[in-house]
């Protein structure tokens, strides 16, 4: 009978879900690699109906380039076909929805909560509903690599705003937004799971000369992921767990040493930390910097398997079952 969905088709229809990634600092380097690898990895995965990317940074031209890369670049497989908004075919189960961009300055704290909430609402309304959400807190700045006695108050403020306060505000707005989602009975299907991924660094766990503000902020962010976990567990134990309806997990991920806007200036000009300068120059001379796409493929394997403990700190150099088992470098 026409219109009836049977057997395998029915199962497919029930299981298909929409994936959504929000990436801060998506205009270049690691953020760009996260976006492209997310599209490639989840776009080719069985059971994924569609993948939507929300790319955030201040650089429109950079975001346009990354958007184009996600939609059809070399690293995106044929399964990750990109549709223009006009030709999204909902019966095509492996459609990547076009990414959108939004100018968002993370140091603009006065507007950040409202603008970030706006982005979430607009995206959900325009492109949703989504079942699985991934928020990558990737933006960052090294700032001045000088000893703490040489940091200016202005530098302390900017570094803290971009590296710690903005990600904290984003998490706060996000968790509030998830809590306030409409119940499933209404027209909009709520997000059922959310993974918050803090792109971290070795400076979160070790003290390195010159990496004072950066290290303080990365340590704070790792603590943020743990505190969110503790609060979710607390809510689940308590009576009023309205906010714990969505399955939330957090992860801090140290991506490895890569040649980007953070390390190239050190290769070229050196910095106050001689050991770090030497290491960067050695890696540069030996082609030893880690390819961001290798790092992000490991991150996607970790997220896909979803076996990490919420609040965990994982480094790309760790030995992990996920990376042994999966088809990734
Ligand atoms: N490279 C490494 O070796 C390395 C090692 C460990 C950890 N990491 C981490 O990896 C992440 C990405 O770094 P990367 O190496 O790709 O650095 P990058 O090339 O300098 O990129 C940094 C990103 O952060 C964004 N950003 C900086 N300030 C911002 C602001 N005020 N508002 C909005 N966005 C801002 C930039 O976007 P716009 O300028 O376009 O706004 C850019 O997309 C960082 O969290 C970094 O700490 C990198």
TrEMBL record:
Q: List UniProt keywords, sorted A-Z.
A: Cytoplasm, NADP, Oxidoreductase
Q: Name one GO biological process term.
A: tetrahydrobiopterin biosynthetic process
- Primary place of residence? cytoplasm
- The answer on whether this UniProt entry bears the keyword NADP reads yes
Q: InterPro entries of this UniProt entry? A: Biopterin_syn/organic_redct (IPR051721), NAD(P)-bd_dom_sf (IPR036291), SDR_fam (IPR002347)
Can the keyword NADP be found in this entry's annotation?
yes
User: A single GO CC term, please?
Assistant: cytoplasm
Molecular function GO labels = sepiapterin reductase (NADP+) activity
Q: Name one Pfam family in it.
A: adh_short
Name the PANTHER family on file. SEPIAPTERIN REDUCTASE
| Name of this chain's protein | Sepiapterin reductase
Source species of the chain:
Vitrella brassicaformis (strain CCMP3155)
């Amino acid at each position: 009978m026409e219109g009836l969905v049977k057997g395998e088709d029915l199962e497919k229809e029930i299981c298909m879900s929409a994936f959504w990634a929000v990436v801060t600092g998506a205009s270049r380097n690691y953020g760009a690699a996260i976006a492209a690898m997310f599209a490639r990895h989840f776009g080719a995965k069985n059971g994924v109906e569609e993948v939507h990317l929300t790319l955030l940074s201040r650089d429109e031209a950079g975001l346009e380039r990354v958007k184009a890369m996600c939609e059809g670049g070399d690293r995106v497989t044929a399964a990750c076909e990109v549709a223009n908004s006009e030709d999204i075919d909902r019966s095509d189960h492996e459609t990547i929805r076009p990414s959108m961009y939004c100018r968002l300055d993370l140091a603009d704290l006065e507007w950040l909560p409202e603008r970030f909430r706006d982005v979430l609402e607009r995206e959900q309304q325009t492109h949703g509903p989504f079942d699985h959400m991934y928020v990558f807190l990737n933006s960052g700045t090294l700032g001045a690599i000088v000893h703490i006695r040489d940091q200016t108050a202005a530098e302390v403020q900017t570094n803290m705003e971009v590296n710690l306060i903005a990600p904290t505000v984003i998490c706060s707005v996000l968790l509030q937004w998830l809590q306030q989602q409409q119940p499933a009975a209404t027209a909009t299907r709520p997000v059922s799971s959310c993974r918050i991924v803090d792109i971290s660094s070795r400076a979160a766990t070790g003290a390195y000369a010159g990496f004072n503000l950066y290290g303080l902020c990365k340590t704070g962010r790792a603590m943020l992921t743990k505190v969110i976990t503790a609060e979710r567990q607390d809510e689940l134990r308590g009576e009023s767990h309205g906010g714990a309806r969505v399955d939330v997990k957090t992860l801090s991920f140290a991506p490895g040493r890569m040649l980007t806007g953070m390390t190239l200036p050190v290769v070229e000009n050196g910095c106050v930390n001689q050991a770090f300068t030497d290491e960067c120059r050695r890696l540069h001379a030996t082609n030893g910097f880690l390819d961001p796409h290798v790092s992000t493929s490991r991150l996607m394997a970790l997220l896909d398997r979803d076996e990490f403990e919420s609040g965990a700190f994982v480094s790309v150099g760790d030995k992990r079952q996920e990376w042994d088992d999966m088809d990734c470098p």
